[in-house]
Specification:
Blueprint lengths: L2 H6 L2 H9 L5 H19 L2 E4 L1 H16 L11 E5 L26 H8 L3 E6 L11 E2 L3 E2 L1 E2 L2 E5 L5 H9 L4 E6 L5 H7 L2 E4 L18 E6 L2 H11 L29 E4 L10 H18 L2 E4 L8 H13 L6 H4 L5 H10 L4 H21 L5 E5 L32 H4 L4 E8 L5 E8 L4 H14 L12
Helix pairs in contact: 3-4, 6-7, 9-15, 10-12, 10-13
Length: 471
């Protein structure tokens, strides 16, 4: 196989070939590293790339295999970790000059579990500063470019992971999602992304964002994300929010499908502005998917939708005030939009915040009550296709000092409500930019969302499409 073939090879296939000794971990890792080194100057998906450490791990994996040790489910398969997540072996810099070169004492549990399953970590992928925005640019690492169009947004704080998946930098990429930061990069980069139910994948330290941050996979295929989720999920003593249950056999049960299930489709959640080309692609794909999957599809306008925007904006700004302590020394080196967001949040009184939380809990209850009548909800993932990454807002949208949420109204409701939600590629704009369709399930039904995404993948396959500039 060529370097390109190995870079795009699904993890499920790579792991099987390594177990069969058809491909060696050293051969596979070296090929992916060569591909990254060839493309990385123009994509800039890595905050920290560690080829020497990866090759050391690959040699150890090969030796273990040759000595007859029982391989883990990801033995010899490469993976990446987002730069917001702690890693003992690599710097964790949060996309900020404030933490340039910073080292943490331990790994986040997802990184530990990936290594224990045999994965070879290539390094840390880029993020916006402290994950605050949906645009792939930070003061520390500069612009991460969308593999489908140089200079365009790769999306949200897991942008490096999404770009790496699209560019064929191996098959498995860990991300986190506080308001859409797994799903938005998947949308912009034309790959699959899953935000699991809250607590499915442990995080340590636990985020300070009022329990809205979810950890999960980005990959080119649904099966790869199912495999990665099985490895990362399960209770952990360092995260008091993790679910008691261990993961279901997601990969083995993907084929079961969703025939007979009830799907609701909403074009705008009753309030969101959506670019016409994006809306048309999602609407067409939703209908074709439901017909092929044997599920019913009804267009709806959820009553709870319009309550979301004010809550999202107030909470987003309020939670960024945890960074206000850095302003006296670092403001000039920080993202100006983040500074504006912090200052806006600082105007929210404690009494107002408590009132917002009461309203949030009522909003969440409405969402879960609504899902009693539906198995899945389909929406656009994002209102726009990729736009120039030097901008916070697309040129044809109203400007604002920090409110990028206006073009990303479909993701944050399910961070607050803890539902599993996935993004599947559903088509391309006339300019050749990917568009994603969001599949949301009932809380805890991660398996159902994966099965729905797998059924979509079979009906409207996408993984054979590769960005031309990564060839």
């Amino acid at each position: 196989m060529t370097d390109d073939d190995l870079g795009f090879l699904p993890a499920t296939e790579m792991a099987a070939l390594i177990r069969a000794k058809t491909i060696s971990p050293v051969e596979a890792t070296a090929a992916i590293i060569r591909r990254i080194e060839r493309l990385e100057p123009q994509i800039n998906a890595f905050a920290h790339f560690a080829p020497e450490q990866a090759m050391d791990a690959a040699r150890a994996a090969e030796a273990a295999l040759m000595q007859g040790e029982t391989p883990g489910p990801l033995h010899g398969v490469t993976a990446t970790i987002k730069d917001l997540c702690w890693t003992q072996d690599f710097p964790t810099q949060f996309g900020s000059k404030i933490f340039a070169g910073h080292r943490t004492p331990t790994d986040t549990p997802a990184a530990t579990r990936l290594k224990q399953a045999g994965a070879i970590l290539l390094g840390k992928t880029t993020t916006s500063e402290f994950g605050w925005k949906g645009v792939s640019r930070s003061p520390l690492t500069g612009m991460t470019h969308n593999p489908w169009k140089y200079g365009f947004n790769a999306g949200a704080s897991s942008a490096g992971a999404g770009a790496a998946a699209a560019a064929g930098y191996g098959s498995l990429h860990q991300g986190s999602d506080g308001a859409g930061s797994i799903r938005m990069p998947a949308h912009f980069c034309g790959v699959f992304g899953l935000k699991p139910s809250f607590g499915r994948v442990p995080a340590a330290p636990v985020s300070a964002g009022d329990y809205t941050t979810h950890n999960g996979p980005l990959s080119r295929t649904v099966a790869d994300s199912a495999l990665m989720l099985e490895v990362m999920a399960g209770p952990h003593p360092l995260d008091h929010t993790t679910l008691e249950a261990w993961p279901a056999p997601y990969l083995r049960r993907l084929h079961e499908g969703i025939a007979g299930r009830r799907i609701a489709y909403s074009a705008d959640l009753g309030h969101a502005r959506v670019d016409p080309e994006v809306a048309a692609l999602v609407r067409d794909a939703a209908g074709r998917f439901a017909a092929a999957a044997g599920a019913t599809l009804d267009e709806v306008t959820p009553a709870w939708g319009p309550a979301g925007p004010e809550l999202a904006r107030k909470f987003w700004a309020a939670h960024m005030t945890r960074l206000a302590r850095h302003l006296p020394q670092w403001e000039a080196e920080m993202d100006p939009g983040l500074v504006a967001c912090i200052r806006s949040g600082s105007e929210i009184a404690i009494s107002e915040y408590q009132d917002l939380r009461e309203r949030k809990y009522a909003y969440v209850a409405q969402i879960h009550s609504w899902f009693a009548d539906w198995d899945f909800l389909i929406t656009p993932t994002v209102s726009v296709a990729a736009f120039p990454a030097e901008l916070l807002m697309p040129e044809h949208w109203p400007s604002h000092p920090w409110d990028w949420l206006s073009w990303a109204e479909f993701s944050y409701p399910f961070n607050m409500a803890w539902n599993p939600a996935a993004t599947v590629p559903c088509g391309f704009t006339g300019a050749g930019l990917p568009v994603g369709l969001q599949i949301v399930g009932r809380r805890f039904d991660d398996l159902g969302v994966l099965q729905a995404a797998s059924a979509f993948e079979q009906a409207l396959p996408w993984a054979d499409r590769r960005p031309a500039q990564t060839a």
